[in-house]
Amino acid sequence: MSLVLGAVADDFTGATDLANNLVRAGMRCVQTIGVPDVDLDLGDVDAVVVALKSRSTPAEQAVADSLAALAWLQGQGARQVFFKYCSTFDSTDAGNIGPVADALLERSGGTQTVMVPAFPANGRTVYQGHLFVGDRLLNDSGMQHHPLNPMTDADLVRVLGRQTPHPVGLAARPVLAQGAEATRAHLEALAAEGVRHVICDTLDEGDLAVLAEALVDYPLVTGGSGLGQALPEQYRRRGWLAEVAEPGRLAPAAGGALVLSGSCSRATLGQVAHFLERHPGIALDPLALAEDDAHLEAALAFARAHLATGGPVLVYASAAPARVKAAQAALGVERAGELVERALGQLARTLVDEGVGRLVVAGGESSGAVVSALGIRQLRIGDQIDPGVPWTQAPLAGREAPLSLALKSGNFGGEAFFSRAFAVLDELTEGSTA
């Protein structure tokens, strides 16, 4: 098998976000959890997205994990490699976007790559190098309160410049407006000046199409999943990609419906509130989790009781910034996060073993913890619930029906996302014999 596209994603929800757009654009896609350590039956898959948990790890570990993923993808013959990070450019002044991009570019043999975090369908745009979330600059969007990677600067040229020793340039909107040939010429001129990384303005789908055409021959591209929806058309024009009917069709879904939420983003807090007005839910408190197992056992008992009556049910650690900071002050940032992730992982493992077959997880770190706890290594990507969030399925040992799993980035999805997800799954799998 020879892949058209191989992607290295720095968290699990970001990986499914990209895979979702690739499927929607007609690519048959598989997501792996970590770098595969055994041979996988990939069949006639067009793209593989390797999901890492490298967004907030030490830079050295993020680089090592990303290079291992790159080596595996190159071994599968990937024509192009995509380094996927969040559309809000989540990172710190130490990285990990800059260090990982530098390492991947050097190993892939390129001399220049681009940064295209924008995802216009989800309100993420870039203008004059500044990242906007809706009509707000990144540093005024709520991301300034991110518990792990607070984003306090919207100027991505400046942000990336603090993460890499190499020059960072800009492909501004007036250049893109002239088309792919002019954009390619601008990038080549920057490369001749030694500019290794280029932040790309992107306001709409037309800009993504221009960039995809200009970048299709780059060995390495980087960005959010927006670029992923534009690249497949360029692959088809090159004759690399065949037309495929229903690349996102899934097997029939079965089992109880559960939502686990660890994200504290504004979007997720709104989704939690909306769900609780219509369905049962119970909150997890990191301080109580730190005392003993009684709090976790109470959450399990609550979930079991409501799953027995049909569900869906929500267990959440999502909380307003003040409560998050209070818990972090008492326990430490790392300890507070570990307690929540471990609890969500234990809940998922126990309740899936007891019959949950439809599971939604909100938050990148939370999704990583749940997927790891469940021992999932490979996901088939289905169609989307909301922009950037698809349903996926993974086989379960001893059960005929696969686990239907949606991994949602904290900032993604409409207010009714949790309730809507299960309705979409019913529509997606109705009548399927896959």
Tell me briefly what this model is.
The protein is α/β, with parallel strands linked by helices and 434 residues long. It has 2 domains: 5-237, Putative sugar-binding, N-terminal domain (Rossmann fold), CATH 3.40.50.10840; 256-429, Molybdenum Cofactor Biosythetic Enzyme, Chain A (3-Layer(aba) Sandwich), CATH 3.40.980.20.
Features of the shown structure:
2 domains; globular; 20% strand; 18 strands; 41% helix; Molybdenum Cofactor Biosythetic Enzyme, Chain A; alpha/beta; 434 residues; 15-stranded mixed sheet; 3-stranded antiparallel sheet
Describe the structure.
With 434 residues, this protein is of the alpha/beta class. The chain folds into 2 domains: 5-237, Putative sugar-binding, N-terminal domain (Rossmann fold); 256-429, Molybdenum Cofactor Biosythetic Enzyme, Chain A, CATH 3.40.980. 41% of the residues lie in helices and 20% in strands. It is built from 15 helices and 18 strands. It has helices spanning 12-24, 59-75, 97-108, 156-161, 173-176, 180-192, 205-215, 225-237, 266-276, 286-291, 294-307, 321-331, 333-353, 364-374, 417-429; strands spanning 5-9, 29-33, 47-51, 80-84, 113-116, 124-127, 130-133, 136-137, 168-171, 197-200, 220-223, 256-261, 281-283, 313-316, 356-362, 378-386, 389-394, 403-408. Strands 9-10-5-11-4-1-3-2-16-17-18-15-12-14-13 form a 15-stranded mixed β-sheet, with helices on both faces. A 3-stranded antiparallel β-sheet has the order 6-7-8, with no helix packed on it. Helix 1 packs parallel to helix 8 (225-237) and helix 13 crosses helix 14 (364-374). The longest helix is centred in the C-terminal third of the chain and has 21 residues, at 333-353. The two termini are 22 Å apart. The model has no long low-confidence stretch (mean pLDDT 92).
